[in-house]
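Ticket 4471: requesting a sanity check on a complex prediction with manganese (II) ion. Repro inputs:
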Amino acid sequence: MILEVAALTLAGTHFGVPLLYYYYLKSRYLNKPWSIKVDENYKPKVTVIVPTYMEAELIQGKLRNLYAQEYPKDLMEIIVIDSGSTDGTAELVEGWASKHKGVNLKLIREAERRGKAYALNHALKYAIGEVVVTADVDALWPNRALAEALKWFADPTVGAVSCLKKPIGSKIRGVEEDYRRYYNVLRVAESKAYATPIFHGELAVFRRSLLELLGGFPTDIGADDSHTATRIALLGYRAIVPEDLWVEEFVPNEGYFLWRARRAQHLIQHFVKTIKEARKHKVAKEFRKIIAVEFFLHVVNPWLLLTSILILVVSIVVFSLLFAAFVMILGLALLNLKHYRTWIAQQLFLIVAALRNLKSKEIAWSK
Ligand code: GDD
Ligand code: MN
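Returned structure tokens:
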């Protein structure tokens, strides 16, 4: 009896908290108007930083994509920072730049690879834009994305803006899409409540003055984008993801599992660090709640599920409890439902990620 109650309580919490959080955010914030003053004509000077490591296949497409942005060329500077790619990425950038003289493009080549955040900080030293944007190579922006992202900075309370992601180009896209649907709602609703602690390096915009105040991007953890946005929110600025700012991201066909596990790993590092850091700040009440729940969802919650499963297994194997067997069979049968499958997969990624974190932080990850 006691085992069954324990297993059910753990499972109930595991599924209950994220569902409650989702419906709470959705009903309370998702359709609320933004309490931010946007100005469509606000056109600050912007530095787009493109970090590259072994991107020969996609880099020219990405430069073309940036070139097509509907934003005044004289207000836009591009810095490509390459960390010793051996596949000709830097040469392709040079070639492209020589054919597009109208673009203000600078290429910096690092001899040694120390990771994306180091590279961003290196590039930051040369940035002159009032706002700085990171642009991963493996994502494509709609032509108005930059203008749409920058209009929010007309409001001085906005410190950082990022995007929603639409997965493209892979057989596994369906799984990724389902996962994104849930998370995109959280991102927007959290932003309307105050700020979202999860950003996307595929298009992440920061006020340069704030980046400088923070001493650049963190190099001791993987989620440079999310952690920087969160630190900006802890300083009292809004860090938001608007509902209409989308980018397309290529999902890898091979190594999808490791890709997801590594990202989960970076998010765990980020939330563990954030919980400690938040204590030092006087934080907006809404944001404190958001950080607490997201910490729980990424760091604690997957283990409740695992513990519940282990208790059920012991109940069945050692004590032959019928009810436990019934719950277990129900849990397995539900795997036929897509949303449930997607959820369980994410828990698996988070558990693998936590274990991998014990071994390596994956600051410079394989491509
Ligand atoms: N210069 C440089 N040096 N660039 C790098 C390095 C490096 O050591 N490592 C990766 N990059 C570049 C890639 O070429 C790409 O343009 C961008 O950084 C993101 O790398 P991906 O390999 O595409 O990473 P991801 O999509 O899995 O990572 C996502 O999560 C990360 C945090 O977990 C993205 O959102 C990243 O922006 C984010 O940092
Ligand atoms: Mn990527």
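Notes from triage: The longest strand covers residues 76-83. Leaving this open until the requester confirms.
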